[in-house]
Amino acid sequence: MKKKWLCLIFSLGLVVQSGFAQEETLKMWYDEPSDDWMKSLPIGNGRLSGMVFGGIEKDNIAFNEITLWSGQPDPEQEKPFGKEAWRNIQQMFLDGKLEEGNALASEKLVGVRNSFGTHVPFGDIELTFKQGNGAVESYIRSLDLARGVASVTYQQGGVTYTREYFCSNPANVLVVRLSASEKGKQHLEVGLNPLRKSVVTTEGDAVSFSGQVDFPTFGPGGVNFYGKVKVLAEGGTIRQNKESLSVENADEVVLIADLRTDFVPGDMKEMVLSTVDDAGKKGVETLKQEHEADFSRLFNRVALSLGTAKNDIATDERLKLLKEGNNDPDLIALFCQYGRYLLISSSRENSPLPANLQGIWNDNLACNMEWSCDYHLDINTQQNYWAANVGNLSECNVPLFNYIGTLAEAGAKTAKTVYGCDGWVAHTMANVWGFTAPGWGTGWGLHPTGGAWLASHLWDYYRFTKDEVFLLRAYPVLKQSALFFLDYMIEDPNSGYLVTGPSTSPENAFLWNGKQLPLSMMPTCDRVIVYEILNACQSAAELLQIDEELRGRVIDALDRLPPFKIGKYGQLQEWQEDYEEAVPNHRHTSHLLALYPYAQITPEETPELAKAAAVTIERRLNAADWEDVEWSRANMINFFARLKDSRKARESVLGLINDLSRENMLTISPKGIAGAPTDIFVFDGNEAGAAGIMEMLLQSHEEYVELLPCLPEEWNTGSYKGLCARGGFQVDLSWNDGAVKHAQVTATNDNTLKLKLPERTGREKYYKNKKMFDPILLPYGIVRVDLQKGDIFEVAYN
């Protein structure tokens, strides 16, 4: 259904990193079954997902698929407006008629939510057991992050029961394996508890189901779906019921499940039957071996240690102890690695869609919220992928880049219909049906830089990999985004600067003449994103030696963008005018994109602006009832990392884990904020939190790679292997008592390395490819060395 125009890029240009064996098994474990979705354990293969509850008498696996969406394409999503009307409304704002302009824009510049849709959950695979009546002992439910396998073990009546659960990407199925220490001990019923209206049938050794998603909350339409759960029993018998299968006296039972929709072209039923049958023929040992080899190939690229492991304590108990004030840096390392685990599980090269608001899982809560379980382009989707490049998971970007391609195609119509402009545009809310129009409320929805922000990930991927084959194919998307803003912006006659607008600083508002207004010309976040996308376009065109005339236009536009401003409180202004904030405790700080993920403001290059950014942060954090949610707290980790404030960065790490994560360490939008009636899982906190922890240990947004830029004293001893830096470098590092002991940088392409060391004592020794070497010594603790692909540069301290 969607054109995968970027897949070829990765088959040609992907940088493949070598793996590392984990020194210790990375596991989350619990000594009781889950009685709550937020205590269950996630598994996934980038398309299929499961949440493992691990019950004794009844075990539920919440089963889902990434393309299970309601809604349908909507050719009437945009309200036609056009360039003349657009210029008139811009002039109204430039003339200072903000109240009238906000009213007119709120009427005319909104999209239409006819059939927007949402991702929805399918329901549960239910296993009802009939084995033994004795007391259950030695119960353990665990998730092995490096292998991608969840498991349950316990003893009952002298028998040890074992269950294993995994979603295989090579076989494209979900697998459950049930075994015991004695033969003939598997007695269970295999059924379904679908949340979608389904026709469930049994035939032979399988339970099949089909239906169409009907979820009218966000409009008509929905995909058709078909799925199958195949039951293979070694020994014993399988009895067919109307909607379930009963297994008696089996030695071992294996379930193989698949679910597909007609969102992806092809015969979904035929694909399910073929996939499940092929997996069944392989046998569970082969399936498991292939899955573990595939998953660990990605996961084991990075090893991270921040302290002594405490694997003898259950994960939920460790979380309680951490909340009580006990220091457990190893748990923070586990949380970081969990973010990588979740990204691998939800976004693979062959995934038909990128990770959405809940990754590939779905708690049946977010999809019932006004926000929908979709793709938010005012920070959430971007945060989902912040950990990919630095975390050595560049392939996980592929579904996102494919999705950006579809947005660019759909957004060309929106650019022309709404604004009468060239290029493409996408706003705040996006779905799988090509919705790129403004949102249906201007206070949050008139955000024309949302698509450009997402597209800037293309350029950052290039900065990490230096893959020019990729850049050549990604360039048209960058170019068309730049062309939109070149056409869309207008000169402010009061200042001579080029400005966007009217638009919102998501999702905030300001006070003007005693009234609360959301729209203005060139809110600071627009200035940040426009600069970034124009600079990416110009830099890419220069590298590729193309579009010389366009490069000149872009350079001229960059020179005419307004500067950042510092307001009356010493804060970085969120708007061009120093308005009072209507909501001082607002969770969004979109103007601080200049600090992170971008580097338009840094302590080194723009110290006054960095100080102003810090004032903005402190004012938000200290405001009464600050809207502390998973993604805003994860933001703070990254902001403080860039400001080199290790104490406050660590405090935000602890705040994210202690206050905004649940027993399974999935992050939450807490009850009471943004209309949430209860805690709701949102994927972005896990990913942006992991990115923030890595940002504290390694930075590369300047023209150099910096080691341990924001190391808290509580993490004074540790090591990591395999983190990636811009410029095409992979970094291994160990430190003790806060001081670097050994650093190793491997070049993944030909480039000059500038490495900033935490200290340069004169006693360190340098090696290039294991031979003593004298690099060029630069000021501020920076050493310089020219490297070719595969070269290894090392720094060792006595």
- State which percent range the strand residues make up: 15-25%
Which whole number gives the mean pLDDT?
95
Uncertain segments of ≥5 residues (pLDDT<50)? 1-23
Count the beta strands.
39
Which features does this protein show?
alpha+beta, 9-stranded antiparallel sheet, 7-stranded antiparallel sheet, 19 helices, globular, disordered N terminus
Describe the protein's architecture and organization.
With 798 residues, this protein is an alpha+beta fold. 31% of the residues lie in helices and 25% in strands. The chain has 19 helices and 39 strands. A nine-stranded antiparallel β-sheet has the order 1-6-7-8-9-16-13-12-11. Strands 2-3-4-5-10-15-14 form a seven-stranded antiparallel β-sheet. A seven-stranded antiparallel β-sheet has the order 17-31-32-33-39-35-36, with helices on one face. α12 packs antiparallel against α13 and α18 runs antiparallel to α19.
